[in-house]
Amino acid sequence: MDLCKKSLPVRGKYKDIAEKKCCREDGHEGECGEFSYLSDLSTTHPRVANKIKRDATKTTGAAWKSEDAGPNRIDRWVMLQSDEVLLQYGLNMAALKPGVVAKLREKAATYDDCMEVAAKLTWLAYQMPDAPECPPTIKKYLESRFSPMVASATTCIVCKEPLSFSLFENAQRGKAEIETAHSNPREHNQTNVGFAHRECNIAQGNKTLEEFYEWISGILDRVQP
Ligand SMILES: [Zn+2]
Ligand SMILES: [Zn+2]
């Protein structure tokens, strides 16, 4: 499916190094929009819609509090810029600990990749066992971007158990029980992204899923030979 991709006005501090495009189908009627397919969830489940937008476009969910821990939540595409350019925006990468810089740089992704991730996460959320019904126009749109939706098909990308939509609302100390996860945590694109239980995502850590399963199976071999 071809998208409209018309440039939309960008505001804010990073407007010169950012872009914003219409994600509606090419030749659509009515206004352009960046996240039109989230219109239903934004009304019925605003927390879920905001989480999808945030996880798709922002660098981190980590609560970095100290001064040298780096900018909290920044657009992923901003992190594609060089240290020199970022310094012009008041982001002094040289002042951050190397581990923090590496983490920020790892989360970098192009605007287009972030937008594909947001659409993919929405498509996945609607396929959770107890998900709200997807309005027909949104369903048609998402299915033509990915593939036909299958009820209850969305599983945790780590443990493969079905993921309940209700976990979005279950939060402990402000942390949702469901997280956006990556088969390879160093790549942020739609083929590599999905949802996982918070515990599973934490267990996977910075390993790829392949590395993680190998690690787990090594442990199991040693504890139950
Ligand atoms: Zn448009
Ligand atoms: Zn899991």
Task: Tell me what you see in this structure.
By secondary structure, the chain is mainly alpha-helical. It has a domain at 1-34. The protein is built from eight helices and four strands. Strands 1-2 form a two-stranded antiparallel ribbon. The chain has a two-stranded antiparallel ribbon with strand order 3-4. Strand 1 and strand 2 form a beta hairpin. The structure holds zinc ion (2 copies).
Q: Terminal Cα separation, in Å?
A: 51 Å
Range of helix content: 25-40%
The biggest sheet, with number of strands, parallel, antiparallel or mixed sense and barrel status, is: 2 strands, antiparallel
The neighbouring-strand order within the major sheet is: 1-2
Question: How would you summarize what this structure contains?
Answer:
Helices cover 36% and strands 6% of the residues. The chain is mostly helical and 225 residues long.
